[in-house]
Amino acid sequence: MKPNILYLLLISLFLLISACEEPEKKNQFVEEELANTLETTDLGGETGHISDYFYSFNSNIDVEFYRFSSSYFSFDYNQYLNLLQETPPSLNMRSFPEYLIEVTPTQQEFIERSLIDSLTNMGVIDSNSILILSTLFKNIESLVWDTDVEPEAQRYKPNNSDWISDSAIVTFTDTMDIISYRAVVDTPMIDEGVLFIDQAEWVDTRYEYVADQRLEFSHVFSFQRKQLNGDSLMFRVNTDCNDNGVWDDAESTDVGNGIWDPAEPFYDLNNDEVKDANEPFEDRNCNNSWDNAEAYTDANSNGQYDDGEDFVDSGNGIIDGAEEYTDLDGDEQADNDELFLFNPIPNKMLVTWADPQNPQVINIIEPGDSLVTRWGITYYDIIEISDYDDTKTVSALDRDSLVTLYTNQVIGHIITDGGQDDYFIVKTEWEANNSAGYDYDYLLFKENEHIYKLVKPSFFKPYGYYWSEGQMASGFWFKNQFEDEVVYYTSSGLLREGEHVETMYYDTTKTAIYRVERSFKVDVEDVTVPAVNIRGFINNDGAVECFANAAWPAATIDDCPGADTTFIDAFKITNILTQTMIGTDVEYGEKNITWLVQGYGIVKDELHIRWTERPDANKELWVGLSRWELGKFSATTSDGGQFAKLLNRAHVVKINELQNIPELQDPFQIKRTAGLQRVELPK
Q1: Is-contact 503 50, C-beta < 8 A?
Q2: How far apart are alpha carbons 287 and 267 in whole angstroms?
């Protein structure tokens, strides 16, 4: 619902008057014309309890996703795998149900610490070592055309070396203080309900304080690598369907190419110089059948065709469309070496035309082998040999002190209204191009009918608000206080097909007034992701063959990449956010689409963004920012209800001390997230 013009003028005037003040937050919810099906008893579709389809907070969740960044958002999994010959980058998500987050005020008399002299030792020298591992890889020793299968299934099979790797151990010493304290509790205290403490039981919590800079150790491993050249010739499907070496537009009739064409080269398995049905060949004119040489008049009786001699210029029996091509250089023109498409299977038989009168099929490719095309293009080193220096850098904590805190066992936190104040930790971690080599987010959830996420509200920055490159890169500014944000609405704990909830309010900040609109929808549909449990099999040759790519070099089935599996009737959750800056009418949108499967939680998650479209745009233009697809999943669940769950907890931790937990290691950081995904605007 759009505000009227008078209202906009009043808001703009208010902004001018209060520009130098810091206004209070004013969230005014608007309910007119907003959808809300939560009060509808039965929506008539599929239903499922949220804890069965999201994640049980009583479970140790360990999930591996394939993460597609904005650069590869349009790729599906199999395209990425077969074109880039590697799996997409991974993202790991873990939960830590043994740790309980309390975000409440403190009471100093309960958390005061006293030093334990007998367990304190200063200036301790600790010897340690760290292992550096090289990248694990295999060399391609040769490629052999496989003739042991049906002709349509023949392809080049790699003859790989054993796994190649190396390692190095670095030893070092670290000087630190070992200190012990005791206290009643080490937790922010509650402001409602009762906190139960067992004074007869003690829990020891270790805090490791480290220097800002980690200790870094590097080692260079030197290898010789034999790998498929980037040209990937055996993956190319010929599209030069009139075999003239240049791009041609669509034909109106089947015509020849104006060039005498010799017989298509074939692999003469029985050496009888006759093309048999089971013998593979180079299909140069795209008609899927072998063609003999075009008839000609041997004017000089030398037994071969010479330029200028008459010949029968035959077509390929097909009215060809415009020839497709792969734009290698990005100039939007079909160059002579671009008349092909990529096939995920290496079934293009290679032929060298170094002797144009006697082209030779290459049934065995060895490192350093090259070929010449019919049109004189030379491709060197089909399997290239290169010296490879693998530089690996690992880091270790430079520990300043190791502090052990002994506190009484916390038994439980009971809230009188039956609600839940406990936030549970989920950590996502993925590869990143930064100094650490990885990035991460902590996500704090709680369940109280709906699923809530603890956030600091953030808003896009208006033009002129940037003061540094870092601010411009992040694109958002954050409020100081934490708030609960609904991620998944439920009706009495149930996800329901057809659920639709809309909210809208105005948020007055020191920067601008924003209109915030949210839409939550639930649909049901099938979803396919590369999460099959068994990824390959042992073939008749005793070799591993992967379902996702039969040519994938794998020593064991576990080395195979993920392969597709389809989940039936997944809940598809669509959360759409629109922030509009009042006065400028600049809009920023986020669309988070999540597919939930019973017993698995999230199997696929997409994040799209948009900005205010051009005036001539007739629809919203969303840009894919990031996509997760489930690769591997495991969950271990403890039995018992909420009180039993609290009994099993060994640690109650503060939000600003997450880095002191060995399993977590990283400090809490404020980042903008949509659902579970980091929002990083493209530069």
Answers
A1: no
A2: 18
Structure tokens at 673: 């997230």
- Using the Cα atoms of residue 248, residue 253, residue 259 and residue 261 in order, give the sign of their dihedral: positive
Alpha carbon distance 625, 69 (integer Å): 6
pLDDT recorded at residue 298: 86
Sign for the CA dihedral angle at 255, 260, 261, 263 comes to: positive
Beta strands 99-101 and 651-653, pairing class: parallel
Alpha-carbon distance of 320 to 383, in angstroms, equals 34
Measured distance CA(562)–CA(584) in Å, rounded: 47
The rounded distance, in Å, linking the Cα atoms of 533 and 535 is: 6
The answer to whether the beta carbons of residues 453 and 472 sit under 8 Å apart is: no
As given in the structure block, the two tokens for residue 398 are: 């430079």
Alpha carbon distance 355, 364 (integer Å):
18
Q: Which two tokens stand for residue 440?
A: 């991460």
- In this prediction, residues 590-617 reach a mean pLDDT of 92
Q: What is the mean pLDDT of residues 415-443?
A: 74
Average pLDDT estimate for 610-615: 87
Closest by alpha carbon to 459, among 472, 478, 473, 441? 478
Report the distance separating Cα 97 and Cα 61, nearest Å. 9
Rounded CA-CA distance 192/235 in Å is 66
Tell me the CA distances in angstroms from 637 to 123, 495, 531, 572, one per residue in order: 42, 21, 21, 25
Torsional class of 498: left (φ above 0), alpha (ψ -120 to 50), beta (otherwise)? left
Helix (H) or strand (E) holding 84: helix 77-84
Q: Alpha-carbon distance 538 to 373, whole Å?
A: 37
Tell me the C-alpha distance between 130 and 319, whole Å.
66
Distances in Å between the Cα of 333 and the Cα atoms of 286, 325, 338, 339 are 21, 9, 9, 11
Residue 4 to residues 8, 10, 37, 295, 582, Cα–Cα distance (Å): 7, 10, 27, 80, 12
Secondary structure, 3-state, 287-340: CCCCCCCCCECCCCCCCCCCCCCCECCCCCCCCCCCCCCCCCCCCCCCCHHHCE
- Rounded mean pLDDT, 631-635: 82
pLDDT over 90, % of the chain = 40
Place of tokens 């599906």: 76
d(CA 66, CA 202): 42
pLDDT band at 196 (very low <50, low <70, confident <90, very high): very low
pTM of the model: 0.53
pLDDT for the residue numbered 160: 93
Please check the confidence at residue 470 and state whether its pLDDT lies above 60. no
User: What mean pLDDT value characterizes the chain?
Assistant: 82
- Amino acid identity at 612: T
Which residue in this structure is represented by tokens 């049906």?
150
Residues 6+ apart with CB under 8 A from 244: 257, 258, 259
Report the half-sphere exposure of 476 (CA within 13 A, side-chain side): 18
Mean pLDDT lowest for which of 8-12, 54-58, 469-473, 635-639?
8-12
Dihedral-angle region of residue 287 (phi above 0 means left; psi in -120 to 50 means alpha; beta otherwise): alpha
* pLDDT for the residue numbered 187: 54
Cβ-proximal residues to 50 (8 Å cutoff; 6+ apart), any chain: 447, 451, 488, 490, 493, 494, 495
What DSSP character marks residue 548? S
Lowest average pLDDT, out of 56-70, 318-332, 399-413, 474-488, goes to: 399-413
Is the C-alpha dihedral spanning 168, 173, 176, 178 positive or negative? positive
The bridge status of strand 167-183 relative to strand 399-414 is parallel
* Interatomic CA distance for residues 443 and 645, integer angstroms: 20
Residue whose token pair is 């990283």: 666
Mean pLDDT to the nearest integer, 493-515:
93
Residue 409: pLDDT band (50, 70, 90) is low
Query: DSSP of 238-276, one letter per residue?
Result: E--TT-SSS-----SS----SS---PPPB--TTSSSS--
